[in-house]
From TrEMBL:
Its main location: membrane. It holds the Pfam family ABC_tran. InterPro entries: AAA+_ATPase (IPR003593), ABC_transporter-like_ATP-bd (IPR003439), ABC_transporter-like_CS (IPR017871), ABC_transporter_ATP-binding (IPR050763), P-loop_NTPase (IPR027417). Residues 6-229 form the ABC transporter domain. GO terms for molecular function: ATP binding; hydrolase activity. It is an enzyme of class 3 (hydrolase). This is Daunorubicin/doxorubicin resistance ATP-binding protein DrrA. It is a peripheral membrane protein. Its EC number is 3.6.3.-. Keywords: Antibiotic resistance, ATP-binding, Hydrolase, Nucleotide-binding, Transport. It is found in: Cell membrane. It comes from Nonomuraea coxensis DSM 45129.
Length: 302
């Protein structure tokens, strides 16, 4: 039976008195896109860097394509995109990608990959003179040029404009279609919903939820509208069908959860009329991954 692309059990990592990973367990299947989400400081980058062999764990077990992360065989089988660094400042964009290609037996064509990611016109530009978004795209190109079996993407679209983000999304989709396993960290919930087969949410060094985007968000729909802040919801809750919930989050934004149908819609609009308010931007939608993320990790800044 083929091992997972990544398997982590009881992973612990400490930095002095601070515990970055506290018994974390994670599994990424082969040929799938696994998104790792979490607030800043939750342990996402530390987890990925241990899998890449750049950091060592204090306890626990990590297997990448069935091997220990430091195994030399993985260098040809795994692609790595770092958040920053790793490219000499003076090297030209095209030269760097051609150099990386030489380390692989069957690399993708560097010129075609530069064109694909909108970098063909910057092939002779030194890395230090490229914009942050261009540097990010070059790092992505270097991670995938060797046709890896598994690729780690740490915040792959951070700082990119919408066109560049969509180009990266298309490339990730093609990697999955080709059977490549992808593990990505991201702060963009829409990115995780769009790309991921499996989502893992971690907080304070532990997994707090995981599943497909659909299973995490659920089939339940919500009614949302805007009105003046501070409306008293007790009377509305008494009038709603059993099992319904109502909350104001953030101020002036109201969310009604439950069996959203004609009866509930009529009850809410009648209540708004009785309160003398207009329900602006009233819409029916399902819970988003961002809703789930905030419910699990909290809304306060850290």
């Amino acid at each position: 039976m083929e091992s997972p692309a990544v398997e982590i059990l009881d992973l612990v990592k400490r930095y002095g008195a601070a515990t970055a990973l506290d018994g974390l367990a994670l599994r990424a299947e082969r040929g799938a896109v696994t998104a790792v989400l979490g607030p800043n400081g939750a342990g996402k980058t530390t987890t990925v860097e241990i899998c890449e062999g750049f950091r060592t764990a204090d306890a626990g077990t990590v297997r990448v394509l069935g091997l220990a992360p430091e195994h030399p065989e993985l260098r040809a089988r795994v692609g790595v995109m770092l958040q920053s660094g790793g490219v000499p400042p003076a090297v030209r964009c095209g030269e760097w990608l051609r150099l990386v290609a030489r380390f692989h037996a069957r690399p993708l064509d560097p010129g075609a990959l530069l064109t694909r990611l909108g970098l063909a016109g910057h092939a002779r530009t030194p890395f230090r003179r490229m914009s942050g978004g261009q540097q990010q795209r070059l790092s992505l190109a270097a991670a995938v040029i060797g046709r890896p079996e598994l690729v780690f993407l740490d915040e792959p679209t951070a700082g990119l404009d919408p066109q560049a983000r969509h180009a990266c999304w298309e490339l990730v989709g093609e990697l999955r279609s080709a059977g490549v396993s992808v593990v990505l960290t991201t702060h963009h919930m829409d990115e995780a919903e769009r790309l991921a087969d499996h989502v893992v949410i971690i907080d304070q060094g532990r997994v707090v939820a995981e599943g497909t985007p659909a299973s995490l968000t659920g089939a339940e729909r919500q009614l949302r509208f805007r009105a003046r802040p501070g409306l008293t919801l007790e009377e509305l809750l008494n009038a709603l069908p059993a099992g319904s919930a109502a909350k104001e989050s953030p101020a002036g934004h109201y969310i009604i959860e439950g069996q959203v149908g004609p009866e509930l819609l009529a009850t809410v609009t009648a209540w708004c009329a009785a309160e003398g308010v207009t329900a602006d931007d009233l819409r029916i939608e399902r819970r988003t991954l961002e809703d789930v993320f905030l419910e699990l990790t909290g809304r306060e800044l850290r």
